[in-house]
Amino acid sequence: KEVDFGMFLTILMWNTSGYDSLGAIAGEVENPSTTFPRALWASMALTISLDMLVMITGVVAVPDASEWADGTFYQVAMVVGGRWLAYTFMIGASVSMIGLYNTLLCTCSHIMYGMGQIGTLPECFTWLHPTRKTPYVAIGVLACSSYVMTLMPFTALAESEMWFYGLSSVFKFTALCRLRYKMPDYPRPYKIPVGDVGLMLFCVAPICMCFLTIATSSVQTHCFGITGVVIAALAFYGYTVRNPGWRTLERKPLVSSADSKDEL
Q1: Is the pTM of this model over 0.90?
Q2: Consecutive H or E run containing 222
Q3: Which of 20, 162, 165, 203 is disulfide-compatible with 173, CB 3.0–4.6 A?
Q4: From CA 189, how far away is CA 31, in angstroms rounded?
Q5: How far is residue 185's CA from residue 191's CA, in Å, rounded to a whole number?
Q6: What confidence tier does 56 reach under pLDDT thresholds 50, 70, 90?
């Protein structure tokens, strides 16, 4: 069976993406400069180990690649352990997806909250729940949008998401290098313990991966992505025209951040 390397890269990137979204809730984490690196290393090691174990088991149980399709891991569980393992796998996968969905709602709603603070989204996105202090409007909009997206095929969703994710990640890595060069002494919760040259070399591989994922996407995804970028650029241009002093706008914290004794 011929391998679709474009989709392979998309799914590979999709399975290992999202760690950067934790930065949206850094203000609610105690000692983020030590907590985040430890959590990231542990979660990456656990994720890679489990993925390898599951894939090796799947290849042994279903060696014919032509038989692999959506739902194959359920069949693998049935072959390896019978109905009890298959049902357990389904329950575990469902709980995992619910947890992942709640995490995305939390991190993405914080991003929308910040955009509402600086005016790139309507002010209603900054409204907080009176007791839980959560941006409930942003959470509601994300939940409704997610429901609509479930009507699309998984492959189309994954490819579109990774197109935008890859492009935004390139901007993030570029901003990381630029901030290190322009403001090396600016206080930051965590600083990657490498020099300027080392940081640039550190960013080369992921940036190349992002460009490769974008380049191997389908024509439909390119059209969808370019359209989204044009709309976003026009919206941002309109915002800068309405708010010429947008770079100096004050930003209020979402909630009171935990006191941190980290050395910045």
Answers
A1: no
A2: helix 219-242
A3: 203
A4: 8
A5: 10
A6: very high
